[in-house]
Amino acid sequence: MQQINKQSGIGGFQSDLMKQYQSQERVDPSSMPYQKMYLSFSGSIESGEFDSEDTLMCQYEIAHGNSFNPVDNNQILEGKSQFSVSNSLYTRDIVFNLPFEATFSTDTPFGWPQLVISVFGKNFFGLSEVRGYGSVHIPTQPGYHERIVRVYKPLATSKISEIFSFFSKQEIKYHDAKKVIAYGEGREVTRVKSVGTIKVKFNVMKRNFKREGYS
């Protein structure tokens, strides 16, 4: 008799738990408040080393996909340095010290920002003209990072263009460097030549990426 009462007591307890569980309010994940992901970074284009140049200027532009929106509409996503000269006898480093920074909000990592770099020199007439291009994605992990960016310049696609460039003293250049370099539009039909490297430093911060399932 005592055993029956004990079993009925356990059954009643389980029944109460079931009723309590069923009475709980269900949480619909789709109704939860949505939080965007945030990417903030800063850094500087430190220096460059080039084959046959000792006076150069550096220019950058931050390219990003449509899903990445600047948090502040007044953010400056492009800039340029002064003309810098390498005077060292032991190294060909040209120091730029060009800072950059930006903060974006997004709901997907597609279209991750890139730093598009253009390098300019002076021609025979003292006018600035492009010497090469390079690009690097913003590091995906938070913290301090250093990157070495390869700089290349486009070559003439025909003998006529090559002859015209030689006599006019004008380097071959992209009409829309951002589209070609960052998005690869028409990149497959161009020939390029490596002309040097640029050192870039990054400090990266991320928010809400782990919450949305990204490391």
Automatic annotation (TrEMBL):
Just give the chief location class: cytoplasm
The places in or outside the cell where this protein is found are:
Cytoplasm, Cytoskeleton, Cilium basal body
- Pfam families per the record? B9-C2 (PF07162)
Alphabetic keyword roster: Cell projection, Cilium biogenesis/degradation, Cytoplasm, Cytoskeleton
- Can you cite an annotated GO cellular component? MKS complex
Q: Which protein family is it in?
A: Belongs to the B9D family.
Tell me what this protein is called. Answer: B9 domain-containing protein 1
Q: State the organism named in the record.
A: Tetrahymena thermophila (strain SB210)
Biological classification of the source: Eukaryota, Sar, Alveolata, Ciliophora, Intramacronucleata
